[in-house]
Amino acid sequence: MSNHLFDEILARISDPDKVFLETLDGATLTYQEVLDRSAQFANALVSLGVAPDDRVAVQVEKTPEALMLYLATVRAGAVFLPLNTAYTPAEIGYFLNDAEPKVFVCDPSRAEELQTQSERAGAKLVTLDGEGQGSLRELADTASTVIEDAARDPGDLAAILYTSGTTGRSKGAMLSHENLASNSRTLVDYWRFTGKDVLLHALPIFHTHGLFVATNVTLMAGGSLLFLPKFDLDAVLRLLPRATAMMGVPTFYIRLLGSKAFDKELVSQMRLFISGSAPLSAEVHREFRERTGHAILERYGMTETNMNTSNPYEGERRAGTVGFPLPGVGLRIVDPQTGHPVPDGDVGVIEVKGANVFKGYWRMPEKTEEEFRSDGYFVTGDMGRIDERGYVSIVGRDKDLIISGGFNVYPAEVEALIDELPGVGECAVIGVPHPDFGEGVVAVLAAKPGDIVTPENVRGALAGSLAKFKQPKKVHVVDALPRNTMGKIQKNVLRDRYRGDFS
């Protein structure tokens, strides 16, 4: 029987004995072992009562076994629901009650505190720890390596990923087998991945970037992973000479640039560095190229869509842009009020359409209908523009738009100028309540190690570069900006912290 996603991502196995994955301690999994172990985990899930379309919720550390659990869920015909390891029991309770999984997998150390939430949702709780051990592992170890994969069509659900929920109730994005398979097919071709590639994998696997992009692309290409439990600078520096590609968030590249050991010779065999999940500053892009000779390839994706755009593999990778719409992806910039396309160069809301775009939000038909146009385009909520050469730039989320004195201020424009100032390591521009202007522009920044930046210097440097209404009325210099696990700056945290600036 055909299991669409599993068959697609593992269709290119030519050498079952080839190593697919190697861990930090040197342990390996061959492609044959991937087939065998994922079958054992799938049979373990079936023994727990998991049937096609059931949800399997997972909050575990990054291990090869966790990756096999993902593949096993697909093979069992169930729906994989990865959860951030930082979520609290209260947050887990919401996700379990909403998704109603048949099985919930968590770390043994958290089993007692999460048992109540699991029982309330009607889920069987099993465990898997940071060493790949636990009650689920015990079930899998005694299970058969033979399985008849559940028949799954392209439109059947493969995963539910919950959005961050920073502006309200978290929503479960429903991703089909073809949503994931089509995007991987496109990226393998667009980024030129082959069986010769060795991807340095330091991303978490509860997120689309590390799970569906990095893992599925490598599997589909028949390549290999150097599989790190997390980003560790020393480990990454040690393993880079063995890799050909790396996917990361901007924080990874900033940390690499902070090491004197990171130079052109160290990455002489690398062919591709990819950045996503958060904006990469033009300054980091420039410094990285000067140091290594490599231009970081920045792309743009979402939980709901996987990847939408990418800078070219061959051709100019333009700093501050996310490149062109990927083959098969329709992208347009529209006026947020009228929904009509805006001229090139103007800012509007990004809308996308394609086989990569999700099926809708779990048990939220009204929200789903609200976020899709009648012609099938998904309203991303991201603000952007397309330049004269067709490159897409992200200006910010629509909720991040600042309206000061009746004028629109796009944070990305101000942030780009601040990032270029000497000594600035990272920055964020937010709007907070202002008694006269509605919102006042506030800049929060951190200096590079060893450098000193003052609010007066920042305001002085921007005075001749920005219209007065765009200039920050207050500048805060901090040790570091708050970020989530994917490296995105948490502007909601900053807005709460500085909302009294003008009161």
Question: What does this 3D model show about the protein?
Answer:
- It is a single chain.
- The protein is of the alpha/beta class.
- 30% of the residues lie in helices and 25% in strands.
- It contains 15 helices and 25 strands.
- The chain has helices spanning 4-9, 31-47, 64-75, 89-99, 111-120, 135-141, 177-190, 208-221, 233-239, 250-257, 282-292, 365-371, 411-419, 455-462, 491-498; strands at residues 19-23, 28-30, 55-59, 79-82, 103-106, 124-127, 157-162, 172-176, 198-201, 224-227, 245-248, 272-275, 297-302, 306-310, 324-325, 330-334, 348-353, 360-361, 378-386, 392-397, 402-404, 407-409, 424-434, 438-447, 474-478.
- A nine-stranded mixed beta sheet has the order 2-1-10-9-11-12-13-14-15. Strands 4-3-5-6 form a four-stranded parallel beta sheet, sandwiched between helices. It has a four-stranded antiparallel beta sheet with strand order 16-17-19-20.
- Strand 13 (297-302) and strand 14 (306-310) form a beta hairpin.
- Helix 2 packs across helix 3, helix 4 packs parallel to helix 5 (111-120) and helix 7 packs across helix 8 (208-221).
- The relative contact order is 0.09.
- The mean pLDDT is 94.
